[in-house]
Design goal:
Rossmann fold; 19 strands; 16 helices; alpha/beta; Alpha-Beta Plaits; about 575 residues; 2 domains
Amino acid sequence: MKQSTAGHGPASAPGFGVTWGGPPRAAGRVLTVAAAAAVIAGMAGPAAAQTVASAPADPVSVIVQELPGSGNGPERAVAALGGSVVRPLEVIDGFEASVPGNRLAVLRAAAGVKDVTENAAVTLTSAEVDQQAGLNGSLRRITHEMTGASALWDAGYTGAGVDVAVIDSGVVAVDGLRTAGKVVHGPDLSFEAMDCKWGQGCKPSPVNKLDTYGHGTHMAGIIAGRDDTAPATVTSGTAGEFVGVAPDARIVSVKVADAQGRTDVSQAIAAIDWVIQHKNANGMNIRVLNMSFGTDGVQAYQLDPLAYAAEQAWHKGIVVVVAAGNTGYGSAKLNNPAYDPYLIAVGGSDGVGTPDTADDIVGSWSASGDGTRNPDVVAPGQSVVSLRVAGSALDTAYPAARTGERFFRGTGTSQAAAVVSGAAALLLEQRPGLTPDQVKALLTGTARELPNADAIAQGSGLIDVAAASAAPTPQAVQTFERATGTGSLDKARGTNIIEEDGKELRGERDFTGRTWNSGEFASKLREAVRSGTPLSGLSWSGLSWSGLSWSGLSWSGLSWSGLSWSGLSWSG
């Protein structure tokens, strides 16, 4: 069976690799008025020279777009007019500049200049955020009206000091995720991590660790987005900026999916292993792991290698939040690994178009479980507005999901899981000593029952972070039978038999093509968790990809829980 996301072409990803700041392409020297008149006269004629000769007005910030082949002519014109280049903007073939306000017409007429517009980036961004803030599914409504997260901000808890690992398709530093230290990039375990040429070896690809699919950035924005212009202290009164559930938490991105969302369960297991081993490495404090994906594998969770790996992270002190899955995919069970009872399995609520949660239901797209293992809680998952990766595969395939220039809407349990991961980060800043079992007990014990929603599908109900923060610390210890991980890797994939050019990844082989030994894997991971030392002897040991040969395979496996993209609500 080919992956459900087949047909999404690789993202062109405009803007990748652009660096801001640094020396401008032309020196910002200021000429005398007379010299400026001479320079511009040669470009635009006597009328322009006459305009330049007048006294300069106060400077204004402008965006200058250049014509192809213009060289440094537009930059020289800016300098001649008494202005200066601020920073290059290669993504639009132009630059930002400061120019006297009464000389914009002259600059527009200069040779090589395509257009000059006054730079109102902050104003426009705020306007765009304000416009989306009133939408159902906006983070403002989710944090203020649906989950109570903003109440914790007012109490001084914004997720600061808590790292949330996001195993997904990578993260791009768009506004909302580009402040210094906001994102830490772990390894890129995806198929597009390396650029390998026959006889020349391998090197990191240009999109190494970047989100060419568009999903990981969307999740990270929900969890911990924080606009560049947001005030130093975020409160419920903060307006005009995009702010996620835990705006001062840090994202640790571990990329496993490529531009088409393709990955295998063994890649996800390798990513979980990395998170466990690097929980407190290099100043990190990974307390939450968000996994907005799943398979329809139905072997007992006690045997399943993916469920086992996720459960080991839980026992290591990491709150593991997993999307319950979307209906219409696989069996009646929750997706793997959400069906492991130790983890927090999150279903998605639907606000039915109103900010009042009293009429909320569980989305028809949200998996309700099999009556034995059901979602633990639900969180808003309908048409959630978060950060967009322009030019990514999802952005290209679903333009109707765009909201303005910066945002993208998506529906599913992926989005709901991200909301809960942010909520967990808030609680862990408030009470750093909480165990994963206690975080789960707080969220389930204070969730609000939705009277109009299916009782099984909603689990304990809609999370209420404010109520959870006010509740006493519970004495909670889960005693479910623990997983062993000795089952089949192939069964963990469920019906996702990966196929590319007639080749399939079947049987007990990992994503490197090597034989998978479940007993060895389980024993080594268990010992690694006990001792705190990295795994050794497994196929991804050391995370050194220079010797790997993909043998022509480009396979996929996981079905992103929030992304039944062939029709599940990304169109708005």
